[in-house]
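Narrative of activities, Objective 1.

The group set out to show that a structural description can be obtained from nothing but a protein's sequence at a throughput compatible with the screening campaign. Below is one input-output pair from the validation batch, recorded exactly as produced.
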Amino acid sequence: MNRALVKIGLCISTILCMQSCSSVTVLRTHELERVGQDVTTDVHKQLDSLKLAIDSLQTENLRAQRRMMAEIGLLNTRLSDATDKLNSRQEEMLYRLDLLVGSSSKPIKRVVVDKHATATSTNAPTTSAPDTSTQSPTTSDVASNDPELDALYAEARGDFSKSEYKLAYDAFKSVYEKAKIGDYAENALYWMGLCLTETQQQEKALVVFNRVLEQFPTGKKTCVVLLKLADIAANNGKKDDQLQLLQRLTAQPQCRESNEAYKAIEILDQLKPAKAK
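Output recorded for this entry:
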């Protein structure tokens, strides 16, 4: 009897032991599941955080690229403006040098004319010199015949070099209205157009530059005016007009060996792939 009771007690103890072990196993299993869920949640949070950081870096990189491109464009614009002003000053110096050379040669010209007049009056009274009153005056003709026009033109160039574009435009306009034809008129129109571009009056500049081409189709400013018109067309997004103007520039006989023609060819080479796309 006692042995039976002992066996029963052992069985009960074993069963209780097994139940407690099962409970512990279940608890540990639940704990492991909770730990795994926590780890998974942390990993997802870290991945989300990394994605946000990457997106933020990409956005900042794009902004930096745009700022850099804007700064480069601004620097190019400033460089172009500085180059134009430098060119205008150089042309002013050349112009004044031409005036000095022209003024130094005036006495010689007067002596030659006087001798020729004397010779023709004494030797051939019936022969007269050719009439040049209807020919277009050159810069030296205007400079030698109209000191007031010389001074007005020099004043206009001085105002332009000082960035006094409104004063320069009015002075160049007066030169054009006074000269009407010849180099002075052509140059005055060209510089009037530059004054308008410097003051962001593109539409008016287009009118003036086109007048240069209409009135002086084979003039000295034809090449640079065509390049200016092409630049304005490009700034206004008119690529077809820009292409036509550049092609017209390279086709001009007087422009084929000019710096403007080389620049036009370079721009055309850049435009061709873009147009093909």
